[in-house]
Specification:
Number of helices: 13
Oligomer: single chain
Number of domains: 3
Structural class: alpha/beta
Strand content: 15-25%
Helix content: 25-40%
Radius of gyration: 25 Å
Length: 392
């Protein structure tokens, strides 16, 4: 029986995915956490914790180094809120060109007997433009960015996409009508609109700053519905004050961009739809079950992806440092325990590696001794022995 602890309000459809092999919220010493926005940076992880699934794309509320040292795999649910963010982004594109927020605010405060005459007289101040034929630069064409690029293309916009980490899967999602820039400067120089859809990390923090804004066209409209900090807000304010940028739309507020007519801030609602929350909860629950039952990894944010068909009765998994001779030490320990290896796979991600070993025969009385042997290897964070219920 596996124990799962949930934080925040997890949609019931996700909780319903757990089979009768799982108990929810019965103990703090859980095998897995299913979370949304709870901040775990001051949290003490129990030794029992093997997996955390974040029902959403962001994971900056999880201390990855601490999780890795505990031998805990951390996953997000990429793509679960992609359509929600895409729809909001399209709405903001239209709002920015048609001055919708200013027009609605004017209408909300326009009253009196001559309202029709004043409306006809004043409405020209809200004249806008159409998106058709305008150029949009999409920085980052993963789950969200590829959808935004496609939607803009369908609206008749010229789309320039830039992503230095473009995967083959993402490339398939991008229409051949969309120009793929080789550099960030190439993407933003001729754009009327620039939107960022990259994950936040050390390389993307401040990705759009004073230098990049200087390269953009005068009157550019800028959008950040990815993560706060990817766009340098202070640099944007300077660009707005200088007339270089026309407007800034973002889902992430900060003091320097508040109370400005040329900035629209929404309260981090990009992925806040019923559908997105359901998708994230379901994907998170299925991720937890897959990892706990098979050891397979997809969409981890601290471990390498490694998926191996579980076709033997037993599987041994190890999370360890990515240093020389780890695989050799592991294999030697198994040989010394008189265990024959049927299959062995290893993958690395930066300083961390993950090893999966499949075996046909493993006596129950030696399991604890084997875990102790492997755990005693320096730089091993966690050892697990899994059983294939269809074969054991």
């Amino acid at each position: 029986m596996y124990q799962v602890k949930t934080y925040n309000a997890i949609v019931q459809a996700g909780l319903d995915r757990f089979t009768d092999q799982y108990q929810l919220n019965q103990t703090d010493d859980a095998d897995g956490y299913l979370i949304r926005s709870v901040d775990l940076h001051d949290h003490v992880f129990p030794q029992s914790l093997k997996v955390i699934a974040r029902a959403g794309a962001g994971f900056n509320n999880i201390p990855l180094d601490q999780a890795t040292a505990n031998g805990t795999a951390v996953f997000n649910t990429p793509g679960s809120n992609a359509n929600a963010v895409k729809e909001l982004m399209v709405a903001m594109l239209i709002a920015s060109t048609r001055n919708l927020f200013a027009a609605a605010d004017y209408a909300a405060h326009n009253s009196g007997a001559d309202i029709s005459k004043r409306t006809e007289r004043d409405k020209t101040k809200f004249n806008g433009e159409e998106l058709l034929g305008k150029t949009l630069a999409v920085i980052g064409v993963g789950h969200v960015g590829s959808l935004v690029a496609s939607a803009a293309n369908h609206l008749g916009m010229k789309v320039i996409a830039y992503d230095p980490y473009l995967t083959s899967d993402a490339a398939w999602r991008i229409s051949t009508d969309i120009h793929r820039a080789q550099t960030l400067d190439e993407a933003i120089k001729q754009a009327d609109f620039v939107t960022v859809h990259v994950p936040k990390n050390s390389e993307t923090t401040g990705m759009i700053g004073a230098e990049q804004l200087a390269e953009m066209k005068p009157g550019v409209a800028l959008f950040n519905f990815a993560r706060g900090g990817i766009v340098d807000n202070a640099a944007v304010v300077n660009a707005l004050d200088a007339g270089k940028a026309r407007t800034y739309y973002t889902d992430f507020g900060s003091d320097e961009i508040l109370d400005r007519d040329d900035v629209v801030v929404t309260p981090h609602i990009g992925g806040s739809t019923a559908e997105a929350e359901t998708n994230g909860a379901i994907q998170g629950a299925e991720t937890i079950m897959t990892f706990l039952e098979t050891g397979n990894i997809l969409n981890s944010v601290n471990l390498p992806n490694l998926q191996v068909p579980f076709t033997t009765p037993y599987r041994i998994t190890l999370i360890h440092k990515n240093i020389p001779n780890m695989v050799g030490q592991i294999a030697t320990s198994l040989a010394n325990a008189n265990i024959n290896i049927e299959g062995m796979s290893n993958a690395a991600r930066d300083d961390v590696a993950y090893t999966v070993i499949d075996v046909k025969h493993l006596q129950q009385e030696v399991e604890n001794d084997l875990i102790a042997r492997l755990s005693a290897i320096d730089a091993v964070f966690r050892v697990r022995i899994l059983k294939n219920p269809a074969l054991v």
